[in-house]
Write a structure and sequence with these properties.
Layout (H helix, E strand, L loop, with lengths): L9 E4 L10 E7 L8 E6 L6 E4 L3 E3 L4
Antiparallel strand pairs: 1-2, 1-5, 2-3, 3-4
């Protein structure tokens, strides 16, 4: 199955809630899709932990 983002992609978390990282994050990996929206493990620079975020809350970052 193809996912929208691949490991290493730089993305921004939108519609942030409590504890949402500011700025861009790196996709660590796509999680297996069982039911519901696609989810990804992401990590912000300088953090030692990963977060799980739904695909609908991520947007690609362009480097124009």
């Amino acid at each position: 199955m193809t996912t929208k983002f691949s490991a290493g992609a730089r993305v921004r978390v939108t519609r942030g809630g409590v504890g949402a990282p500011a700025g861009t994050v790196s996709v660590v990996r796509a999680l297996p899709r069982e039911a519901g929206p696609q989810q990804y493990r992401v990590r912000a620079d300088g953090e030692t932990f990963e977060r799980v975020v739904e695909e609908g809350r991520l947007e690609a970052v362009s480097y124009d």
